[in-house]
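tool_call: predict_structure(chain=1)
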Amino acid sequence: MIKKGAKRSRTSEHLSPVLCEPHLQTFADSAVKVAASEDLLIEILLHVPVKTLMSFKCVSKQWLSLITDPHFVRLRNPPSLSASASALFFASSSSKRCDPDYQFIPLDNSSDEFPTPFKTLNFIDDPLGSGISVLQSCSGLLLCASYRAGEANRRYYVHNPTTGQYTTLPQITRKYSKYVCSMTLAYDPVKSPYYKVVCVRRSETSRQHFQIEIYSSQTQLWRVSGQPFIPPEYTEFQNSIYWNGSVHWWNGSIHWWNGFVYGGARFKRRESYTLYFKVEEERVEQLPMPTTPWYRIASYVGESEGHWHLIERYSDFNSVFNVYELKRDYSGWFMKYQVDISDISIQFPEIFKYRCTLDVISLVRRGKEDEEDGSFLVLEIPGGMIIRYNLMDKSVKKLWEFVPDRKLYNDDCLRHVCALPYIESLACF
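tool_result:
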């Protein structure tokens, strides 16, 4: 083997090195055959761990070309609706003066076996000097933004935490940038290697009207989509590290959450429907919400393995969770699971000790439609514990326990926290 920086001889370019030991000579001959067969090399690289694979890009230009080739990426990560989170990022900051911290929690393996992609985002030195936060996780890519910056100056980035690659989005027309309400990433590797970013901003002519603009990674340009529209009252457009329940990408559409609002001594439903935007058709539609009693409130909305879920609980005490799933043709909702926390309190009696409600962090689907024994809820128990609750056999497993600190956790519960799914992806851009 020739060391990096060493000068190759004319002989070494054409002949295999002569080794004294026969078994070493056999090994060298095998290595030469592997290097000479691109198909065999690809077959081997397909089974190499992702972290090692990223290091292998430095071996040679040939290996770099193979690993970053779109065909290899599709072989290694076949586009599928079944992509499921292998870990969660817990993002938090208790002060506008502090950059967000990210606690990486594997859902299956220990933290030693699953290396942490990052603690803080430093893939670029943000020119505004404000740090960077994650707004959204979508099919393995992260939509990021300048953290402490006014909207008119904020920079947006798309980042792949698996490969370390990123791109800086061009700003929309300067005179409209101060009206931006939301940026949402739309990426479906099943349909295209390109992603889009959908911007919702207020119309320059009326604060009641909103306008959509779309950025395409294929054209690298922004363009206005459709006519201004008026959304239902209380529609949540804003992405934020403090709230991960308002904007969702699912089934080729972006969904803006419209839930409940306090009214008098009890909860009152805002609207019987919410909005979604079909990205390919560039059309805003209305989505009816589940019809449930006033005393139930939505505590979680999210997507997993191509399924969109809404979880409701009683407003006074969350003894029972009703988990609804939306049909892919948008024809209606149906109850998928019902969870009674008394099953959990047997193993974790501190649920009642703190007299607090359980917080639903995430719902993770695993397996095929008829094999759901791997699906589970990720819950926070007051006192700093994160657990996973199997929705079929009702088993409980502790994933993590936070130590109280100023930024992420206090004596009672997680503060200002959202959980972002982590999905390994070799997507290149």
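agent: The first strand starts at residue 87 and ends at 92. Proceeding to next step.
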